[in-house]
Design brief:
Layout: H1 8-16, H2 20-42, H3 45-61, H4 72-90, H5 93-96, H6 114-132, H7 136-147, H8 152-159, H9 163-191
Helix pairs in contact: 1-2, 2-3, 2-4, 3-4, 4-8, 6-9, 7-9, 8-9
Length: 192
Amino acid sequence: MLAEGIADAECVRRVQQGDTDSFEVLVRRHQKAIFNLVYRLLGNYDEAAEVAQEVFLSAFKSIHQFRGEANFSTWLYRIGLNHASTRRKSLNSAQQRHIPLDGTEVIADSAVDPAKNIEHKEIQQRVQQALNSLDPEDARIILLRDLQDVPYEDVAEMLDIPVGTVKSRLHRARQALKTSLAPYFHANRKAS
């Protein structure tokens, strides 16, 4: 069995030399992040699972084209964005604008106040609606930078735009979210 401690770049080199076991290591390392990215873009678990498989299949088929100029994860995210964008175009318009913030439901914990659970779910839905109202490119930047914690430089490379554009779009998108959510949070403060 291949050691898990080997860097992505070494795994890629080994795959390029015909070692398919090394690709399995890459899949295990990145499958959760790729699934989360695709799921957040598509909003449908089954579609996301299928697209995530397509992402890894595409990566495997084109691994010889990977030149190592970027991190493997950046290259893989870009493939994921491309596949998710293509799939979004084929889904109906209601699914096209749905970008879930979290893939899990709030599970009631007997130690947690049920009112807090309801409030958390309501906040999550409000933020989701505000995110869905953004321009798709702005939503994608927030998803990558704020929700997936991808570095600015990698976001720029994935979207093929300058870092400055990433920062300005991110700032604009955050302001739009803040404006959209302000009435809700302002009303909550008055009610308290």
